[in-house]
Please model this.
Amino acid sequence: MSTANAMWQARLELSERRQQEHYDEISADYEAHYSDEWSLEYRRRFIYEPMLEGLNLSGMNVLDAMCGSGQTTEYLLARGANVTGLDISNEVIETFQARWNNATAVKRSLLDSGLPDNAFDCVVIVGGLHHIHPHVKRAVTELHRVLKPGGYLCFMEPHSNSFPDLVRRVWYRFDHFFSDNEASIDVERLRQDFQSQFELKQVKHLGNVAFLLVLNSLIFRLPHSVKKLVSPFLLRVEPLLNRVQTKLTSCFVVTQWRKL
Model:
């Protein structure tokens, strides 16, 4: 390990080191469940399209923050974005580099990215912020720094103050697929904390049966043989249920913020 790399590693927060070790450990299982055709289709229809609605990504410099092996990067590249992927996990950033040689890979913490000021037109995070408690405000401050004025922060996260969140809080305590610092995101609290730095442009509450059993088949221990059979039906049901979805019943939130 180089001296610079060793110094960076030493600066990692305890919570970040836990996340780094956690995702290094489960990376193979994570890849198998979150990168199959059904999970990617879920992401496209119910996360990326509503989260990035109205944004023309062509030619944009986009940061895929907490990028994993690059499921989101695939979507961004297909829409003409210039993508930088940022992740703390050794295993997944190596996969990212091998898979997306037309994107830039950065192995750093979201809390200390080392990226330049005002470098990106858009930052995208899919399910990453809730892994970084208790440092969510620090992370958003860092993202504000690297965004250009007028740039967009778009994220999808499990949100607080919902029935699924009550279940999630109990489940987190007993399931080894979760780290002990994971917690849902309070969007309204974030809006209040950053009202002088960001304008909240859009909030959508989504996610029901297909979110649970298709996208999160790993968590629910759904075998691939079963997932293949039930996914087409569940993906048809999801948009019907989303029409009557409320904050109280939804599993996640997608948002757009604009840097002031």
Q: What stands out?
A: Residues 144 and 259 are 7 Å apart (CA to CA).
